[in-house]
Amino acid sequence: MIGRAPTLIAEKIADLRAEAQGLERDGNVEGAWSCLGDAHVLSQPWAEPHVRVHAWMLGLGWRTRSVREVVGQVARLLVAGPGSVTGRFPVGNSGRSNVSAFTPAPVRADFAALLIEAEPQDAVAVLEATEVRSLYDRMAPFYDVASKPYGWFGARRLAKRAIEELRLEPGDIVVELGTGTGRNLETLSAAVGSGGRVVGVDLSPGMLKVAQAKVDEMGLGNVVLVEEDMAVYELPKGGTGGVLSTYAMEMLPTYEKVISSLVGQVRPGGRIVLNGLRHPDRWPDWVTRAGSALSRPFGVSEAYESHRPWEVIERLLTDVVYDEAMSGAAYLSAGTVPETGEKP
Question: What gap in Å lies between CA 41 and CA 92, rounded to an integer?
Fold first, then answer.
């Protein structure tokens, strides 16, 4: 199935995760694994919670330094979504790396009753800002690891080019909207030099905490982090020369309004660069559904298919560049803010 689990199932999964967290804090790691295994059994029919539970398992494996679990959970993250979408998953499997990913197991009677009672709920919707904040606060500790597979398929190449398309000069002010865990901050800092300034904006304090640790570790004195919703954030005064948004702008229902506002705030000749996910028109439907399921833990769903921020860039800016990766599932769109009176 595609989508979120019914409330009955979702609440039980949340309870099991909370119990696992408590057991882990008390030093009972095996108890924590047992709870997550139960959560996995309940999650399997629905792509979103199924992938999310494996992400939790990846986090536990990472924190307990279990190489076997980390490697196994990365592999399971790639197949969990498609398995739920196609209905091909081993019923009752605990989801752990010490069990074959293809071996079914008996389901507890109380869990079987819950699954029978539950009604499928495949409806998806655009997330509110509070939901996005909560989602990424939970994902922050293992976001870098969970998102790594995207880089294997060309997404990281596109992100690197996005920074190049800013065409930054030493002394520039550059703002990254949706800076997340700060993956781009070191490169941006080097591009503007000690005389420039980098502002990383994100609404998730959890993600910013990870980013701040990187800033401190690398000694990036020209980087400032701001906790704010990028939908309402106003750029620094004094001539912002570039704005970068990676895997964030297409998540905003008001993306057209936000981009239009940025055009009015970035100095003429400055660049606005977007990089993110889009609906892959060239993919077969079943592959699109599977890809959507894999992206669901990051808040991405079919509800965003109509969001096309690159079209706003093409309409409002000059010297526009467009590129794709992942066979059309990731995009890069960049353009220059026109001089006063200049038509795009």
Answer: 5
